[in-house]
Amino acid sequence: MVNGVSSRELRVSDAEREHVVGLLQKAIGMGLLTLEEFTDRTDVALSSRTRAELNVVLADLPGMRHPEMRVRGGQWGRSGVQDRPPLPGEPMVLSSGVGSSINRTGYWRVPRSMKIRSKWGSGVNLDFTEAEFEHDQVDIRLDVTGGAVTLKLPAGASVTLADLDTRLGASVNDKVGYQGRLGTPHLVISGDLSMAALTIKGPRR
Questions:
Q1: Are 151 and 187 in contact (CB under 8 A)?
Q2: Which residue range or ranges hold the DUF1707 domain (predicted)?
Q3: Tens-of-pLDDT digits for all 205 residues of the chain?
Q4: Ranges of each domain in the chain
Q5: What is the DSSP string of 135-159?
């Protein structure tokens, strides 16, 4: 009890939500959750306001809990970026909550598939120009509401956006495109973009 408020009713921060998403990511690697279950529980975690709401997504996972808010480290950094590479066959999941951002620059390894989840975040910025691509094609699924998404691609890359659903004033500014040829790497972008702006540009744009 803190100032007459039950510990279960204490408000949680973005860092605490992201820590729990990291625990859910770990549960996938252990075979405790399917990808669909992970997606559903991540939605709940990112929208949680209190400790009671946040702990619901971990209640049936053995050995995983979000204790007295004394969280340090975990599977995810404060920007919502995984601190470990995804396990074979699983997507890299980058997630941010209200007011937080996702950033990747410099050297980093790009897996076959990625999921970008941002709900009213302050921005998603992924710079691929110095990244190492593990595959010629990368599937990127967006689940973004509000804010801006910027993808900076290396020379020779190409993009397809046929399966991206834009809603409620969302906009797309694609300066790379498909251009009649399958570039390397080739990014296939799908998912949902709502009340957000997506910009795709090359290394000099």
A1: yes
A2: 10-62
A3: 445 555 567 788 888 888 888 888 888 888 888 888 888 888 888 888 888 788 888 877 876 655 433 333 333 333 344 444 555 567 888 888 777 888 898 988 898 999 998 888 888 999 999 999 989 999 999 999 988 999 999 999 999 998 999 998 899 999 998 766 778 899 999 999 999 999 999 987 5
A4: 1-78, 91-205
A5: SSEEEEEEEEESSEEEEE--TT-EE
